[in-house]
Predict the 3D structure of the following.
Amino acid sequence: WVDPSAGFNGTGTYESPLNSLQSYSNQPGNDMIIVGSGTLPGAVTLFDDQVLVSEWMLNQQQYFRDTDRGEIPLPAVDPLATIPTFWNPAAADGNAGGTIVTVAGGRTEIGGIIFDGEVSSGVYANAITTAPIWSIGGFDIHDNQFDNTRNSVVFNNNSSDGSSSALGIFERNVLRGAGFDSNAGFQLTATD
């Protein structure tokens, strides 16, 4: 759980949320990252079957989590939650402006977030890209806003063939680039 307005950087639970992703190292096996209202600095890598959604998104559609007792619905916690803004102040990945979300796995979901790519004057980040030499299989990117990005979504080597879990969905997103400083809104390059 991430709450940009939290007074301290906690452990990542609802009771003790992180307040930044700048020092967070996501691991395979985590199911879901929920971001509360506010402005969130940092970057994150998503692995197989991981979900990155806002608390606002929990108010828009029902989410379920598998447990040893079956599926349980996730409640919408804050009915007044707003769409958070996510940006990467450090160009840590070697790209001018950096990347906000790197997808390094299949069947990922990203929803209900504003991605602000402006790092500094004339320097713009990628919002969502794939990890180098990685084949992703399936994605669901929905209900997001992409502002001032160099590239909003760039997927390379996607192994999606349109069947079952490898289906790629990109819907209900708003893309507002940075004029001539932007390269791609949504780009999917399949090489295998």
Remarks:
- The longest helix spans residues 55-58.
- Residues 142 and 171 are 5 Å apart (CA to CA).
- The chain has a mean pLDDT of 81.
- DSSP finds one helix and 19 strands in the chain.
